[in-house]
UniProtKB/TrEMBL annotation:
Belongs to the bacterial solute-binding protein 5 family. Residues 73-463 form the Solute-binding protein family domain. Keywords: Signal, Transport. This is Peptide ABC transporter substrate-binding protein. CDD domains: PBP2_OppA (cd08504). It holds the Pfam family SBP_bac_5. SUPFAM superfamilies: Periplasmic binding protein-like II. It is found in: Cell membrane. It comes from the Bacteria. It is a lipid-anchor. InterPro entries: Peptide/Ni-bd, SBP_5, SBP_5_CS, SBP_5_dom. Residues 1-21 form the signal peptide.
Length: 546
């Protein structure tokens, strides 16, 4: 899950993403109006499924063969039956008879075929093409060596979709619950042409809600119940209003004045409201980390960040226990590496992947060793001082606090280090990170599904989401082995991934800071919201106002 500045969440922060106030509170004499009012930390940058940069909320308006249910379990979606071949490489889905688009059009097998091909077309510029890896011809298409039309999906008839895989994919079922793989309506896209997805009315929806009042810009929009949805009878909410709130104090004020049903809390606010009956914590499989720019435009800075001793010194200078418990205080935890804890367990032993990826003296606080590494790095570089910038997007309420803490800790422990903070709007951070315009970047990644590969595919040399352009042949080979040669052997694949994660830890090509936990005040009459730590985190299909 990319950073939540896109149509979804990404830093958990579009985690609750999206919302404006209407009236919707119940009274003792009136029936609740079933209007939910939510805060968003950033504007929606797109509603085009193929171009989204995050999918945390997307499952509410777009649905695939499955959807993500409670506790990360796969739940029924647009498909009512599925057959899997003995070799697990052919999946056949039957689309429901009553599956319809929000405009009343029937959802067909060809809508899925068209969707995948459109997403993989280079001119679409999808951020998530790598998710199609392992599907027949997927890797060739991603590499630009095959036509998108050759992707392994076909329509056997109007309601039957057949998907061919290159090899078994351990997480394929849960992958098919991801909105990226949902259908797109070719007729509607052709009808609207360049207007398609530029406003909410130039779009059709396959999920329990549809978007209204989105103009391409603006700080408010709504999800309203989709009365064409196949399972509409279980959808109780009539509307979800979203309002962009970038200041936690503003959000709290709106909540207290009964104009919002949720308020995301800052670190200081958490301390004041932790014992409130409305206090809620929502964990995420999201690791906030430092990205180093290995292709920095400044040659001297590029040399500095390419030095392993310098990166290790930075990692060892950060007291993550102090950061999570005292500075943040919101339930966030210390990571053991690049992959989040609680995401996946060893198929043989049941042990958490996070425990197995740990490497001594990587995420621990060791200022004396940090000083040694720093001195060694400076000597290798032939310099005495280091001046770097750290960029952070303001879509995360903790960003300013964390960057200030990092500046203090690093300048204190590493003599000659001068760190300049650049806190910028979320859209600016997104643009600059994708173009490689940064030294250090306070970034975050959240799992798209419950498998370590969701994290580990990001640092691969060829991945467009590898913004810092770190490249390591040994790492690439381990991930390729996990995804190909060992794809059908659960334990061998697991060990490939463990070794890859350890390599990231040892080299500190990415420096993990903390695993996110986000705190909210949530009205006690809001019920039925499904929250998951990975993938489409927020589902309002069963939500209601009591």
């Amino acid at each position: 899950m990319k950073k939540w500045t896109g149509f979804g969440l990404v830093a958990a922060v579009i985690a609750m993403s999206l919302g404006l106030a209407a009236c919707g509170q119940s009274t003792s004499a009136a029936k609740p109006s079933q209007v939910l009012r939510l805060p968003a930390t950033a504007q929606l940058d797109t509603i085009d499924l193929a171009k989204a940069t995050g999918y945390g909320q997307t499952g509410n308006v777009f649905e695939s063969f499955y959807r993500l249910g409670k506790d990360g379990k796969v739940a029924p979606g647009l498909a009512d039956t599925v057959k899997v071949s003995k070799d697990k490489k052919t999946w056949t889905f039957h689309i429901r008879d009553n599956a319809k688009w929000s405009n009343g059009d029937k959802i067909t097998a060809q809508d899925f075929v068209y969707s995948w091909r459109r997403t993989l077309t280079p001119s679409t510029k999808s951020s998530y093409m790598n998710m199609f890896s392992g599907i027949k011809n997927g890797d060739k298409i991603i590499a630009g060596k095959a036509n998108p039309d050759s992707i392994g999906i076909s329509a056997k008839n109007k309601q039957t979709v057949v998907i061919q895989l290159e090899k078994p994919i351990a997480y394929f079922k849960i992958l098919m619950a991801y909105p990226l793989f949902a259908p797109q309506n070719e007729k509607v896209i052709n009808k609207y042409g360049k207007k398609y997805a530029t406003k909410s009315q130039y779009m059709v929806y396959s999920g329990p809600f549809k978007i209204t009042n989105w103009t391409g810009t603006g700080n408010t929009w709504s999800f309203v119940k989709n009365n064409q949805y196949w399972d509409k009878k279980v959808v109780k909410l009539h509307r979800i209003n979203y309002q962009v709130v970038t200041n936690p104090q503003t959000g709290l004020s709106l909540y207290q004045n009964k104009k919002l049903d949720f308020a995301q809390l800052s670190n200081e606010q958490v301390k004041n409201y932790k014992n409130n009956s409305a206090f809620q914590e929502y964990p995420y499989s999201i690791v906030i980390h430092l990205k180093y720019n290995f292709q920095d435009a400044n040659k001297e800075k590029r040399r500095i960040m390419s030095n392993q001793n310098i990166r290790q010194a930075i990692a060892l200078s950060i007291n993550r226990s102090q950061l999570t418990k005292k500075v943040l205080g919101d339930g966030s935890v210390t990571p053991t590496g690049f992959v989040a804890s609680g995401l996946a367990r060893d198929p043989k032993t049941g042990e958490d992947f996070a425990k197995q990826q740990a490497v001594k003296n990587t995420t621990a606080y060791n200022p004396s060793l940090a000083k040694q590494k720093w001195a060694a790095g400076l000597k290798e570089l032939g310099i005495k001082k280091v001046n770097l910038n750290i960029m952070a997007g303001n879509d995360d309420v903790a960003a300013s606090t964390v960057t200030q803490y990092l500046k203090s800790a690093l300048e204190k422990n590493l003599q000659g280090f001068d760190l300049t903070i650049q806190n910028v709007p979320a859209s600016v951070a997104q643009s600059r990170s994708t173009s490689g315009d940064f030294d250090l970047y306070l970034s975050h990644w959240g799992a798209d599904f419950n498998d370590p590969i969701s994290f580990l595919q990001i640092p691969v040399s060829s991945n467009s989401l590898n913004y810092g352009k770190w490249s390591n042949k040994a790492y690439d080979k381990l991930i390729a082995k996990a995804q190909n040669q060992d794809a059908g052997n659960d334990e061998a694949r697991w060990q490939d991934m463990v070794q890859a994660a350890k390599l990231i830890n040892k080299t500190q090509s990415f420096t993990p800071l903390y695993q996110a936990n986000y705190a909210y005040l949530q009205r006690t009459d809001v019920k039925g919201i499904i929250h998951n730590t990975a993938g489409t985190q927020w589902s309002y299909k069963y939500a209601y106002i009591k």
